[in-house]
Amino acid sequence: LIKEEGFTKARFKILQLLTKLRQICIDPAIIFENYKGSSAKIDNLVNLVKEIVSNNHKILIFTSFKTALDIVNKKLKQNNITTYTIDGSISSKKRMELVNKFNSDNTNVFLITLKSGGTGLNLTSADIVIHLDLWWNPQVENQATDRAHRIGQKNTVEVIKLICKGTIEEHILDLQQKKKFLSDNIIESENISQNVISKLTEKDLKKLLSYGNEEE
């Protein structure tokens, strides 16, 4: 694609490809409508949540994708785990109502999309934060994690990132650790492709799209 169109023109198509690869790591059903198989990440998440809840902890789960949030919500409810959810469709007034309920009742899990819940929420009743998928900029994940690290938090907050071995997620984690994207504090905008892809070199892209630890 880069050879045919040039790096600049190919950026948007490449971002779409990278996004699909990130979604497949969560659950192939997000991309493939007729997929009926399982998801290693979702299965592990459910088992993890069940164990955490059995030890009387409350959990925040963040994801970049509304579809993933819906899948997880359905799976958790099938396992008798109570949830609240916040995504872009929830009004500010309703968000605050849900936050206040979660902080005062026995609901186990709060499911939140990064775009809608990265800032402005005080969720100190939770002491476990799970990131279902990685965002390009670790600063955005940190802002989401801080929903539990607010004034009034009396417990140590544990942060868990679920990462599929041998996939694009390992490469994103590597880029995060190299602090490639710390200057970008935008969760999502009309210029998202420029925000992400403009910081990637052709070598970075080849690394992201490689299998396992192969460079090419």
Descriptive notes:
The structure is a single chain. The protein is of the alpha/beta class and 216 residues long. It has ten helices and five strands. It has a five-stranded parallel β-sheet with strand order 2-3-1-4-5, with helices on both faces. β2 (83-86), α5 (92-104) and β3 (109-113) form a beta-alpha-beta unit. The longest helix has 20 residues, at 7-26. It starts with a helix and ends in an 8-residue tail after the last helix. Residues 182-193 have low confidence and may be disordered.
Report how far the terminal alpha carbons are from each other: 15 Å
Show unreliable segments: 182-193
Instruction: Describe the sheet with the most strands.
Output: 5 strands, parallel
Provide the spatial order of strands within the biggest beta sheet: 2-3-1-4-5
As a percent range, the share of helical residues equals 40-55%
Helix run count: 10
The gyration radius over C-alpha positions equals 18 Å
Keywords:
single chain; 5 strands; 216 residues; globular; alpha/beta; five-stranded parallel sheet
What secondary-structure arrangement, pairings included, does this model have?
Blueprint: H1 2-5, H2 7-26, H3 40-54, E1 59-63, H4 66-78, E2 83-86, H5 92-104, E3 109-113, H6 114-117, E4 128-131, H7 138-145, E5 158-161, H8 168-177, H9 192-197, H10 202-208
Parallel strand pairs: 1-3, 1-4, 2-3, 4-5
